[in-house]
Write a structure and sequence with these properties.
Layout: H1 8-19, H2 26-33, H3 46-49, E1 52-55, H4 58-67, E2 70-71, E3 74-77, E4 84-86, E5 92-93, E6 97-100, E7 107-109, E8 115-116, E9 119-123, E10 130-133, E11 141-147, E12 152-155, E13 164-170, E14 174-177, E15 183-190, E16 197-200, E17 204-212, E18 219-221, E19 227-228, E20 231-234, E21 238-240, E22 246-247, E23 251-254, E24 260-262, E25 268-269, E26 273-276, E27 283-285, E28 291-292, E29 296-299, E30 306-307, E31 315-316, E32 320-324, E33 328-329, E34 336-337, E35 341-345, H5 353-356, E36 369-374, E37 377-383, E38 389-396, H6 397-404, H7 408-427
The chain binds 2-acetamido-2-deoxy-beta-D-glucopyranose (6 copies).
The site of one 2-acetamido-2-deoxy-beta-D-glucopyranose has 5 residues, from loops.
């Protein structure tokens, strides 16, 4: 179910109902006279079997809807110059339903419509404010973009089928339900500036889950999600992914306003795990996570002072990059990092020797380079693939600057930059 709650809802629906005035053409009356018992057997009718219907006005649409309860092909609206689109008796569209680039259409409705078998596309419709298909429960790909005043959407409370849902630049305020839907290919919800809640029980997302640039106080509730292929969450106030167990590719949390990230069920990440610029984030739990096949990047989260929430993490397949006000790091189970490690902390409490001078003699970092800087004091080392530490150096860049910065520090900075760039390439 996609249910949009706004004060405007009832008013909008009432407007639609009263606003539509379908004129009967001579053709329609004749057709109805021949068809008193209801609709013809749609599958026998040539019109209903056409691949493509280009609709320019409601009269065209009435001809189609009076003739066909099932439309085999696609319906496209072109040069449509009326404010309302009403699908009348049409129950099922097996192809696409496409309305694009129109600034006159205010509403789209169909009280009988149950199915759109292809793509349901609403693109660049600057006046559209309401979509009403109260019986619609069988969908495939829903892709809406640039529908800036669309605030009311009504469809069946129990959607049976839907494959992908992509909504951007709408005025929707909430997105809920899909209670019968376990799996989606893509859920991509972005730039809906009034969207304050996303609440679903979806369990699997096989291609992409992406949420970004919606309302500042967006609350994302997907507690049943077990598995996602690739997942990016940005600009969100609360994130509930408490059941998430596997991510096949990357998992990224960027510029969120959350203070908590509780992913205590997460077991593996197939790509990079990035936790970046979440300024209020201080409570994290990734304690079941045992493997990250890509890199681990934790950067510019002002409130994260200790990275000690990866109690089971054994293997990092890429590089490590930590940046921020980090006082301590603790990875009790970590045995192998295949890439480099670059750690840059503004705190002078961070003990870089943990990384640069490993107790066991050989380092868990195998990617060639370890750089650790704590408040200007920098330690670095190269490591061989077997973990042997070579050329360990420690320098204090603040002292160097005081004596003579131009040559030594300049070169060091260049080397550091190259090292970071090199590492970065490994991560991405
Ligand atoms: C409609 O026509 C198809 C194909 O001729 C036929 O298989 C079907 O039984 C008909 N349905 C009805 C309700 O008459
Ligand atoms: C509706 O559009 C069709 C072309 O698809 C055109 O022939 C017809 O005259 C239009 N009818 C009205 C009432 O505008
Ligand atoms: C994963 O998502 C990110 C962010 O949306 C995107 O840049 C990247 O291309 C995606 N990767 C794959 C393999 O789809
Ligand atoms: C993603 O990972 C899960 C669990 O490890 C696995 O069952 C699934 O086949 C993977 N999917 C893809 C597309 O790689
Ligand atoms: C790991 O997950 C299991 C259930 O899958 C749970 O019982 C356990 O408490 C979790 N461990 C941690 C450290 O969170
Ligand atoms: C720094 O060293 C360079 C080259 O050794 C020298 O030319 C320059 O005058 C020195 N600058 C300062 C401020 O000592």
């Amino acid at each position: 179910m996609l249910k949009i709650i706004t004060a405007l809802l009832l008013a909008a629906v009432a407007t639609i109902v009263h606003g539509i005035n379908i004129e009967e053409s001579g053709y329609d009356r004749e057709f109805q006279a021949n068809n008193q018992d209801g609709l013809k057997n749609a599958s026998n009718n040539v019109l209903c079997k056409k691949d493509q219907h280009i609709i320019e006005n409601q009269t065209d649409l009435n001809v189609l809807s009076n003739e066909c309860s099932t439309v085999d092909g696609s319906i496209t609206f072109q040069n449509y110059v009326e404010p309302h689109i009403n699908l009348g008796n049409i129950k099922s569209i097996n192809g696409d339903f496409l309305v694009e680039e129109n600034n006159l259409v205010v509403s789209v409705q169909g009280d009988s419509l149950q199915k759109i078998g292809g793509t349901f596309k609403l693109y660049d419709l600057t006046s559209l404010n309401a979509v009403s298909f109260p019986r619609l429960h069988d969908l495939n790909v829903v892709h809406w973009r640039v529908v800036p005043i669309l605030s009311s959407v009504v469809w069946d409370n129990n959607i049976d089928l839907i494959k992908s849902l992509i909504i951007s630049d709408s005025s929707l305020t909430s997105l809920k339900g899909f209670d019968k839907i376990e799996k989606l290919e893509t859920l991509n919800i972005n730039n809906n500036r009034y969207l304050e809640s996303i609440d679903t029980n979806i369990k699997y997302i096989s291609k992409q889950l992406s949420v970004s640039a919606n309302a500042d106080d967006l609350i994302l509730q997907m507690p049943q999600l077990i598995w996602a292929n690739n997942l990016t969450i940005r600009d969100t106030k609360e994130i509930n992914l408490e059941g998430l167990q596997y991510v096949n590719q990357s998992l990224e949390f960027i510029e969120n306003k959350v203070d908590t990230l509780q992913l205590s069920e997460l077991k593996s990440v197939g790509g990079t795990l990035g936790i970046i610029e979440n300024r209020h984030l201080s409570k994290l739990d990734f304690n079941n996570l045992s493997q990250i096949s890509g890199g681990l990047m934790i950067a510019n989260n002002n409130a994260i002072e200790k990275i000690d929430f990866f109690k089971s993490l054994k293997l990092i397949g890429g590089a490590i990059q930590f940046k921020g006000n980090i006082r301590d790091t603790d990875f009790p189970s970590l045995r192998l990092v295949k890439g480099s490690a670059v750690i840059e902390s503004s705190s002078d409490e961070l003990d870089c020797s943990k990384w640069v001078t490993p107790n066991a003699g050989s380092s868990i970092i195998r990617g060639g380079k370890i750089e650790c800087e704590a408040k200007g004091k920098k330690s670095s080392a190269s490591v061989r693939q077997d973990g042997t530490v070579l050329d360990r150096t420690t320098s204090d860049s603040s002292e160097e600057k005081e004596t003579n910065g131009s040559t030594t520090t300049g070169t060091n900075l260049l080397l550091l930059t190259l090292a970071i760039l090199g590492t970065f390439r490994l991560i991405v």
